[in-house]
Amino acid sequence: MYEVESLKAEACSVSAPSLSAKGLFILTNLLRDFEWSWTGVTVRKTGARVPFDAAHLSEIFHWCVYFVRVVLSPRPKDGPLIGFAPDPARPWYLIWPSLYLTGGRAAQPGETPHVWMHFEDKTHSEPVALPNDGVARWNFDAHDLSKSRVAAAFEEAFGYSLALDPRQHEGFAVEKGEANGVHDGRIVTLPCEPKPGKVYQKLIDNRGDDGLMEDLRTPTVNGQPALVYIKRRPEQVRFSNDNSQCWLRSVDEIFSPDEIASIKHFCKLLRLDWGGLDILRDRTSGLIYIVDANRTDMGPPIALPLSDKLKSTCILASALKLSCEKVRLRAGGGI
Hints:
Blueprint lengths: L21 H8 L4 E3 L3 E4 L5 E3 L2 H18 L9 E6 L8 H8 L2 E2 L8 E5 L16 E3 L8 H12 L12 E7 L8 E5 L7 E5 L10 E9 L2 E2 L2 E6 L11 E5 L1 H4 L2 H14 L4 E7 L6 E7 L11 H26 L4
Parallel strand pairs: 4-5, 4-6, 6-7
Antiparallel strand pairs: 1-2, 2-3, 8-9, 8-10, 11-12, 11-13, 11-15, 13-14, 15-16
């Protein structure tokens, strides 16, 4: 875990925007990643579609404000080089602004990076051929991040289960698909016959004191939890990503030492170095459950205030730079 006193994120500072064209230049180059229509935009790689309604247009606007603040900010010039494969990391993925604020960048063809990072927005990844350069690899062994694999790793790391056999259990449960990022969960009554491609899990009562559902989104750097976004939404949209509020907290504020150790063990089992975990705390038992994991974490959450978006990005940048430096020293025999 990375110690950041009171979440001050002193590793970097983010200034107000200055007059510059570089933010607009980068943003313009990204338009080719999308298919545009009068009713919405579709991400070419994943097929995810964002309709042009008031709510989504507001989210796009707030993300653009954050993005411009990041790219117009002063930063060091000696940051790490990361080689992304098979896909480049785009700015809406959390690694991009974090790497940018380290002073680092993506390695270009022919350059030897400090770290190779597997980057592909898919639940199951295929092997990627890399040069035999002795450079550390992140996420290349995290081939399977399906819901069933996540539940199995969770049970091994924590010693209690999330998954249910829908034929053997009675009462309410959650039915969801295996894939990442589809937000297709729904409450069902057991026992029932399982549907193809679906998993069945405990229904976690993750309500806060005011009745809003709370997801503990936890980014990881080099397999360690770095911070927590508390994403809050009404129960009616508990399985969506439409957050009413979002708070930034340190890892120590949210998890006990034993829970942190189990989270690290979980990441080790999945071979997940850089990623994002969706964690729920059950209101009755107090236990936490990791219900999802991915290697292409997006963010920061739109509902998070801008100042905390920038603060959290600085925290991740600091953790990323420290981890890459340790990797470099280890490769050179320095530690």
